[in-house]
Amino acid sequence: MRHKTSPGIQTFLAFLLSAVFAAGLFYRLSAGEGLKMNTRSRESIAMDTVVRVSVTSDKTPEELDGILDGVFELIERLDGKLSMHNATSEISLVNANAGREAVRVSPETAEVLRSALEITRLTDGAFDPTIGPVTALWQAGDAKKTRHELPSDSEILEALSLVDGKSLKETAPNEFYLAREGMRLDLGGIAKGYVSAAVRNFLESAGVESALIDLGGNVLAVGSRPNGEPWRIGVQHPLQSRGAPICSMSVENASVITAGVYERFVEIGGKRYTHIFDPRTGRPIEGNLLSVSVVAADPTIGDALSTAFMVMGENRSKLLLKELPGVETVFVSDKGSTPTVTATGGIIGLKVLNRASVNAERHEEQR
């Protein structure tokens, strides 16, 4: 599972090439019949990462500021339900009652948990929301704690014995139960995707048709850019400094969510261990896959799949992708002197940059 521990920046940076985050900047749309289009943007720390939201509309700047107030209130409220590090969150209450009784949760939390269980089934456990005992053992997801030695094999096996997505049950509508004491939910690999979808729904209900939502690298484009063109989204180069893209693509009404091994890690004995864990082994994943970017209309699914695909590897992920119409993926792997970019055929306007090679055969492949 993916876990975010460093304050202020999410591990997996999918940064924006075309967004303008400057409050008070004004646009005119050629198709807007002279309407004045106002843009307001805001940046804050939330969900243990940097959150940026930019909205454009013919509403007044003051109205857009009020909408952004609502956006960040919504993010804070949902984080208060879904964070395993908040002792009073609904997820923490389910964890505290593991092996004892079911806990009734809000419809929002129930929706996230149902989605998590569905992705667990779909990926045959490569994504598992009950990974919490493993992340706790490795002290991943807690910026205040850092391991200085590797967990022992026995510790890993003990934590792993408590990881079982099939033991998370919805016993009644909106009531969830972890079957064994010590089990622990960790929604670090799906919560930001769900929250970004909730923000999109909020913006659309408020009449905003053009927006860019960035929850620490989980990017969701609402509509098109203010000039009517698609948003241009970049994916972080895994071997270069933050802000250097390895590729970019065009999207409208879609999310681009990246999971990778290159930025968030714990260093023990001079070796870096990623904070993406394999639910089958209880250990950080290994291999030559550096990052996976999932393009999907539903960011909740995209978030969970990006983590699952890192666990599954490129070949297994491609087999599953054949069963997922409308989901496209960019794999970045370390197969030589330069990273290799492999994209599914539905990626629009893919451009590979910064000394990376592209698997042309796969790029042209149409599912």
Description:
With 367 residues, the protein is α+β, with helices and mostly antiparallel strands. It folds into two domains: 26-77 and 190-364, T-fold (Roll), CATH 3.10.520; 90-178, Orthogonal Bundle (T-fold), CATH 1.10.3980.10. The chain has nine helices and 20 strands. It has helices at 61-82, 90-96, 107-122, 132-137, 153-160, 191-205, 299-312, 314-321, 360-364, and strands at 26-28, 36-46, 49-57, 103-104, 168-172, 175-178, 210-215, 218-222, 231-236, 245-251, 254-260, 265-268, 271-274, 277-278, 283-284, 289-296, 328-334, 339-343, 351-352, 357-358. β9 (231-236) and β10 (245-251) form a beta hairpin. The chain is globular. Mean pLDDT is 86; it is low at 1-33 and 360-367.
Shape: globular
CATH architecture of the largest domain: Roll
CATH superfamily of the largest domain: ApbE-like domains
Most strands sheet: 10 strands, mixed
User: What is the number of helices?
Assistant: 9
Strand order, main sheet: write it out.
Answer: 1-2-3-7-8-11-16-17-18-20
Give the low-confidence spans: 1-33, 360-367
